[in-house]
Design brief:
Layout (H helix, E strand, L loop, with lengths): L5 E5 H6 L8 E5 L4 H13 L4 E4 L10 H11 L18 H9 E2 L5 E5 L7 H13 L3 E5 L9 H10 L7 E6 L7 E6 L12 E5 L5 E3 L2 E3 L4 H5 L2
Parallel strand pairs: 1-2, 1-3, 4-11, 5-6
Antiparallel strand pairs: 6-9, 7-8, 7-9, 10-11
Helix pairs in contact: 2-3
Length: 228
């Protein structure tokens, strides 16, 4: 960001990036303004400025990178030399930060599913939940609950309970690696009572996941195959 002339982002992320900002033009906006931010970033870049469009976690996971590429395609813009130069800088996704605090819940195959139906029909989200549960994948839920969406989390757990035992380990992590961090290790039966919001990641184990001294683990299978 030190090389950039303009920094754009959701206001909370801009505030978190404040230690790395010095003299850039900073443009912050609120929720649901993702397309507007991306359009402004593209416009300023095409005008010759070096622009940073920041996200929480990793920009390619439920974040702004795809919006920029979608917008570039919709406008018919070329990429690379002579066109729009886009560099995606990797970050630490919330699911990885949460997993590290819980132990090792993602050591085998897993799926990430957002419960936000603002852009994805709920019927499709339910289908994905059902299929991933049937496949015995560890499931990480993004965006479990907001002020305007208070029933989807309970419904998701209800669907998963059809294919998972009540004692299945569940990790609930809010604001991972940030002020206000909270970590809870619970079970699928008790997970509906867990405090969750838009800054919470919920990780539901598979049939092999276990808890050990306050940690959640999904084995890769080495000890089962080769012995300890």
């Amino acid at each position: 960001m030190a090389q950039c002339q303009v920094v754009l982002g959701y206001k909370a992320y801009v505030e978190q990036a404040a230690p790395w900002l010095s003299g850039q033009e900073v443009l912050a906006s609120g929720m649901t303004k993702e397309l507007e931010r991306a359009a402004l970033a593209v416009d300023k870049a095409r005008a010759g400025q070096v622009v940073a469009l920041i996200s929480g976690g990793d920009p390619g996971i439920y974040a702004m990178a795809a919006v920029v590429f979608e917008l570039a395609r919709a406008r018919g813009l070329g990429l690379g030399q002579g066109g729009l130069a886009i560099q995606v800088v990797p970050g630490v996704p919330a699911v990885a930060a949460a997993a590290a605090l819980l132990g090792a819940p993602l050591s085998h195959d897993f799926a990430c599913i957002s419960l936000s139906d603002r852009l994805t029909p709920w019927e499709l989200i339910e289908r994905r939940l059902d299929l991933t549960a049937r496949a015995d994948l560890v499931i990480a839920l993004y965006n479990p609950k907001s002020k305007g969406r208070d029933w989807q989390y309970g419904r998701a757990l209800e669907l998963l309970s059809r294919h998972r035992e009540p004692a299945t380990p569940v990790g609930v992590v809010s604001r991972a690696q940030r002020p206000g961090q909270a970590v809870l290790l619970t079970s699928l039966a008790e997970a509906p009572q867990a405090p969750v919001d838009m800054q919470t990641i919920v990780i539901i184990g598979n049939s092999q996941s276990f808890t050990y001294q306050g940690r959640m683990v999904t084995p890769r299978g080495y000890v089962a195959k080769y012995g300890g």
